[in-house]
Amino acid sequence: MDKIGNIDIKELANEFGTPLYAYDKFKIIDNYNKIFEAFRKYFTKFRIHYSIKSNSNLHILKLFRELGSGVDCSSPFELLLALKAGFECPDIIYTGNYESIEDLRLACNYNVKINLDDTTSYKRLKQVCTPKFVSFRVNPGIGKGGFEGITTGGADAKFGVPYELLQQAYLTALKDGVGSFGIHIMTGSNILEPMYFAEVAMKLFQIVGKIFLELKIQPEYIDIGGGFGIPYADDEKELDIELTAKLLSEVYFEQCEKYHLGTPELKLEPGRYLIGNAGYLITKVNGVKNGYKKFVGIDAGMNVLLRPALYGAHHKVLVYGKTELTNLVQICGQICENSDVLWKNVPFPAVSEGDICIITDVGAYGFAMASNYNGRPLPAEVLVDNGKVKLIRKRQTFEDYCRLMEND
Ligand SMILES: Cc1ncc(COP(=O)(O)O)c(C=O)c1O
């Protein structure tokens, strides 16, 4: 692989240094259009809320705003960033986890709709405002993700209200005078099977259908979260997003009618699907070690891309100008942790110091999880638009790194 968005990768490395995150604007737009068109075909009332946590660069947020997307935030900074990017309060939803009183106060102050993580969150919310609208995130007791670390429903998941408590939760809100409602579910991330989303929706209706019918609640929206997957490995198939929308719509309309739920808006909170495959991490080989095994040490370790070390996630690593696979190597970063390995026993071209490697599909949960561990600076980010490059985040300097520690 030699080019991103019609720009030579070596030129990017020379001009901006490595490690460098590069995003292909065309792919982001294409991803958004794909999911938007797929759902538009089957739903008239729906909204995409880009999940900021997947990639919170301000320029990326502005691009999603221009495309017509809303956003989903999970923290006060994400909410403030959304406002800074020009999103209006109705475009923003807030789905947190163990929300503090301060978190809830900020969301309330901006009149942002909140998907509450628990009944105790509702109690905290009442300490900062008189809620007019309430939506709970339900844990349906089952979940599925690409792997355990990204499974967000089920008995072991820390998210959402256990479904057995949901009726009481909405009843309490009704008795408190709350007049409008929503419901949220998200059971896992990086799902590649279209049927899964319809199955989760069915599970949701089985839980809330009777509750809403009994309480005479017609929800303003039904939010099925994110979770739309992308293939990371060669043997994985792309998610058929149109089939996903079609299967979901069949369940959605049938069940809304069955339980007299009216015509609630469908909300989606995709992150990975919108930005994952548009991101590349450009990195340089620092050293090749013939130890007990062969190690290729690059300048992007777990400090720059945490997913492999955090939960064994897989990303392809390509070499600029070289395709012939000659060795079995371990690709690792510079961090003083033996878990700082991107890929083990992988067939790889013969590389030497200074070679440029490209790690693919890092647009989501890439920079967003980067840290200063081992005193390494946060990398730069560029947005590439068919032959034009824009620096959208400068590389962190030593002065930036020290600034918050200086107090005299
Ligand atoms: C509440 C919520 N919404 C949306 C997302 C985005 O998920 P994905 O990137 O799988 O689309 C997440 C991810 O963890 C989430 O927790």
Record keyword descriptors for this entry:
12 helices; nine-stranded mixed β-sheet; 2 domains; binds pyridoxal-5'-phosphate; 25% strand; Lyase, Ornithine Decarboxylase, Chain A, domain 1; 408 residues; 32% helix; eight-stranded parallel β-barrel; alpha/beta
Map the helices and strands.
Blueprint: E1 3-4, E2 7-8, H1 9-16, E3 20-24, H2 25-42, E4 46-51, H3 58-67, E5 70-73, H4 76-84, E6 92-95, H5 101-109, E7 113-116, H6 119-128, E8 133-139, E9 161-162, H7 166-175, E10 180-185, H8 194-215, E11 221-223, H9 241-258, E12 265-268, H10 272-275, E13 279-290, E14 294-298, H11 307-311, E15 317-319, E16 327-332, E17 341-348, E18 356-360, E19 380-385, E20 388-393, H12 398-403
Parallel strand pairs: 3-19, 4-5, 4-12, 5-6, 6-7, 7-8, 8-9, 8-10, 10-11, 11-12, 14-16
Antiparallel strand pairs: 1-2, 3-13, 13-14, 13-18, 15-18, 16-17, 19-20
